[in-house]
């Protein structure tokens, strides 16, 4: 049910024009670690599963089931926790998902057999899916609009950082510890980091934008005042800027139900939701597809021993981290649409580079180019998606897009390994990966032509969010003095 009582506040304009403070730095670190942990947990299994497979004598079908359970858990968690973040608030959910992750990651350490391992992995995956929705919805809602793209990109760059950490940890654990201890140590380190950063996340307040959706004006304005107070330590100019007042904006609070969110996502916001879903599908296809190709096709085909494989993942993940850092620059300097189209096109061309490669060094170099491009691409995609979906269903829409991506993640490894088993060479699966990745650059090209550039404008204007006293057909415009 939606209230039609209009409220007025300048809180949104103050947030958008706030100087950078220590609070924003703390927020960036606290949310970025969530992506680091998600990536650590997602990638650690690829490095240690060979050990688990040998210890528990698993066959190929059981190995595939472990991956499917993980991806399915993320899919369900993204949709469920995405709606809950819109319904009950950002803070509750990004704390709950981190605690949930820690609890079931601990349980995974003590898994006594294959079946208990599957159950704990599935439950951990729910939290990882929730992080995708809750963190990406929250990250831009506090950040000043001139810094939003760069900051969101730095937060999302936690994913390749987590992948680098997982590869390093698994390499040393597998080479220095007994097999039955090594894989448990890997999962245990992720749990330790989660508990440390849960403490840091506790100090992040509820999103003022979400509070205004609920009609809780006094709470939202108090939080904006608290953020402004951090500016005193940055100097007189920053403190004065933080206290500046703007002409109040009229807002109509909204409390939509799950089915109302669904109705809006497939109705009025089907364009933004469709774009986000196509981009997420494409990037998940590439991320999971190239990992499968490296682990199951390319490195074994080139006679690389299993113990040496983590080294090549480190190379790729360092390249991915560089792609994230590039995204943090070009999202502001080039704009969102240019970054989105260029990154997805670059990724497709990088897949072609691997297709034509003949030697292990050239294939690894092409793999690094793919990791560089797809990281640049999915960071651009998450930033754009979070800016073109309205606050009242931002987390829900992001959850739906993540769900579409996980569908791609589930089907791609199966299709690629099937193509390899039929032909016996990497060429056929690489061409299939290229075809599956095409929805991304196609959607980015359409958005380049028809979409709105959201650089340095308010989230409400970027999403055309009609939550003011305007009619639903009118665009939102922040009215400043």
Task: Provide a descriptive summary of the structure in words.
This protein has about 475 residues and is an all-alpha fold. The protein folds into two domains: about 10-245, Growth Hormone, Chain: A, CATH 1.20.1250.20; about 265-450, Growth Hormone, Chain: A (Up-down Bundle). It has 20 helices and two strands. It has helices at about 10-15, 20-55, 60-90, 90-110, 115-140, 150-155, 160-175, 180-200, 210-215, 215-230, 235-240, 260-265, 270-300, 310-335, 335-355, 360-390, 395-425, 425-435, 440-450, 460; strands at about 5-10, 250. The protein has a two-stranded antiparallel ribbon. Helix 4 runs antiparallel to helix 8, helix 13 runs antiparallel to helix 19 and helix 17 packs antiparallel against helix 18 (about 425-435). The model is unreliable at about 465-480 (pLDDT under 50).
Q: What CATH architecture of the largest domain do you see?
A: Up-down Bundle
Main sheet record? 2 strands, antiparallel
Give the CATH class of the largest domain.
Mainly Alpha
Number of helices: 20
Number of strands: 2
Output the radius of gyration.
22 Å
Total domain modules: 2
Determine the structural class based on helices, strands and strand pairing: mainly alpha
Largest sheet, spatial ordering of strands: 1-2
Low-confidence stretches: 466-481
* Percent of residues in β-strands: under 5%
As for the CATH topology of the largest domain, it is Growth Hormone, Chain: A
């Amino acid at each position: 049910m939606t209230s039609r009582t209009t409220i007025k506040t300048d809180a949104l304009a103050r947030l958008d024009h706030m100087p950078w403070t220590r609070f924003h730095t703390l927020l960036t670190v606290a949310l970025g670690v969530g992506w680091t942990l998600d990536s650590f947990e997602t990638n650690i299994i690829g490095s240690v599963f060979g050990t688990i497979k040998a210890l528990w004598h698993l066959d190929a079908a059981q190995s595939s089931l472990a991956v499917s359970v993980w991806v399915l858990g993320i899919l369900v968690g993204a949709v469920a926790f995405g709606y809950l973040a819109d319904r009950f608030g950002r803070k509750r959910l990004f704390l709950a998902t981190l605690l949930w992750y820690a609890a079931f990651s601990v349980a995974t350490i003590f898994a006594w057999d294959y079946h208990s391992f599957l159950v704990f992995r599935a439950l951990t995956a729910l939290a990882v899916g929730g992080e995708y929705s809750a963190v990406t919805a929250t990250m831009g809602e506090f950040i000043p609009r001139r810094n939003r793209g760069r900051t969101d990109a730095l937060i999302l760059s936690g994913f390749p950082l987590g992948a680098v950490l997982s590869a390093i940890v698994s390499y040393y654990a597998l080479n220095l510890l007994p097999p039955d201890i090594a894989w448990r140590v890997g999962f245990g380190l992720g749990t330790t980091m989660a508990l440390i950063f849960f403490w840091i996340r506790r100090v992040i307040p509820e999103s003022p934008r979400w509070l205004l959706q609920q009609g809780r004006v006094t709470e939202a304005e108090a939080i904006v005042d608290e953020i402004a107070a951090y500016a005193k330590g940055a100097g007189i100019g920053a403190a004065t800027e933080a206290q500046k007042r703007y002409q109040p904006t009229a807002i109509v609070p909204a409390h939509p139900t799950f089915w109302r969110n669904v109705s809006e996502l497939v109705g009025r916001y089907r364009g933004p939701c469709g774009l986000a879903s196509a981009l997420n599908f494409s990037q998940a296809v590439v991320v999971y597809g190239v990992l499968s190709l490296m682990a199951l096709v390319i490195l074994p085909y080139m006679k690389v021993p299993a113990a040496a494989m983590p080294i090549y993942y480190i190379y790729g993940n360092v390249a991915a981290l560089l792609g994230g850092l590039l995204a943090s620059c070009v999202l502001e300097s080039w704009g969102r649409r240019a970054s989105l189209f260029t990154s997805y096109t670059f990724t497709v061309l990088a897949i072609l580079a691997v297709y034509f490669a003949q030697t292990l060094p050239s294939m690894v170099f092409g793999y690094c180019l793919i990791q560089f491009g797809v990281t640049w691409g999915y960071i651009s995609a998450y930033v754009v998606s979070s800016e073109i979906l309205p606050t009242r269903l931002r987390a829900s829409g992001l959850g739906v897009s993540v769900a579409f991506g996980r569908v791609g993640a589930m089907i791609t490894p199966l299709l690629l390994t099937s193509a390899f088993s039929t032909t016996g060479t990497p060429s056929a699966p690489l061409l299939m990966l290229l075809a599956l990745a095409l929805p991304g650059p196609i959607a980015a090209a359409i958005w380049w032509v028809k979409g709105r550039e959201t650089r340095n404008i308010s989230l409400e204007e970027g999403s055309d969010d009609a939550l003011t006293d305007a009619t639903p057909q009118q665009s939102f415009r922040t009215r400043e003095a």
